Amino acid sequence: MMIVGMKAKRVRLEPELELVAGEWSGEKRIVMGLKFLRWGWQLVLTGKIISADSCRVRRPTALRLIALPKAAALN
Q1: Which residue of 21, 36, 41, 51 is most buried, as measured by CB atoms within 10 A?
Q2: Which residues have C-beta within 8 Å of that of residue 29, sequence separation ≥ 6?
């Protein structure tokens, strides 16, 4: 493949990522990539926690039975 007058890119990014990181140096891409990995896992984990919490049916605190009264336990 021969490109005349233009330098071929060695790496292609997704279009949305190209808009954000197109002008970043290699060093900055590494630093930001590591941050995005860490942030991505935090988002996945917190998303799972929030999803699990939203599926649970919670009764209001006033309606929760904490302990049976002693008289009711004897009947």
Answers
A1: 21
A2: 21
